[in-house]
Model the fold of this input.
Amino acid sequence: MAVTAKNLCKDEFFYGHKACAGCGGSLAVRNALKVLGKNAVAVLPAGCMSAVGFNFPQLCFANNAIISTFAGTSSMLTGIEAGFRRRGITDFTAVGFAGDGGTADIGIQALSGAIDRNDNIIYICYDNEAYMNTGIQKSGLTPFGAKTTTTPAGENIRGNIRPKKNMFEIVAAHDISYAATATVGYMTDFLNKIEMLHIPEKIFMRLHLLLLFLMMVLLMRTLSLKMRKTASKR
Ligand SMILES: Cc1ncc(C[n+]2csc(CCOP(=O)(O)OP(=O)(O)O)c2C)c(N)n1
Ligand code: SF4
Ligand SMILES: [Mg+2]
Done:
């Protein structure tokens, strides 16, 4: 059944956090967890969502959640999934929420490995197009021409001189079973693309968050399949 505002889970799993007003990333985390449910085990590397969600003693997750190393989101997801499986626990979802820097730059190696192993994990990258938590430095997903602290725009330099990495194509090139894009600007579409991650054939999502400014988010899942096929939704 399609997920709508009417049948969306009323429980909150990410609340009381310190995100900026109107933060698209927090909206993505909050609503993704509503779809994935209380048995989701969230992994968050360094970045805005961990910074705003883990403010001891105000931990803002109602489900299990843990901070990983900046580069190690996927590795930790792999370990969590393997650990649960070893203990015979199947009713859970290992889900990562990483930024664009944590995904397209520092976390890309671990991510590539997890996809290569076809691990049964969900990886969500919220792409706000820069290293925001440390003051807006350019990441591999910062768009061409964007002004950041490391790509200043002025008379001599016109902002970022490099194009945005095509993270979707990078993931799809792994022959991953499912890849898609979405945005919290179209919440029903977003919710249902998360819902599809519960279905084994669905594996990778990339989300665009369109708020006051363009924020992108990447989601991904890897899972062993009898038949592997690439089904891309953009
Ligand atoms: C190995 C390592 N290098 C640098 C940092 C500092 N650091 C913390 S958060 C962050 C920015 C993360 O950017 P992104 O992944 O895009 O997430 P966002 O902050 O935009 O949500 C950086 C550079 C760190 N924690 N660990
Ligand atoms: S800087 Fe951006 S991603 Fe970080 S909390 Fe604020 S709105 Fe959210
Ligand atoms: Mg970012």
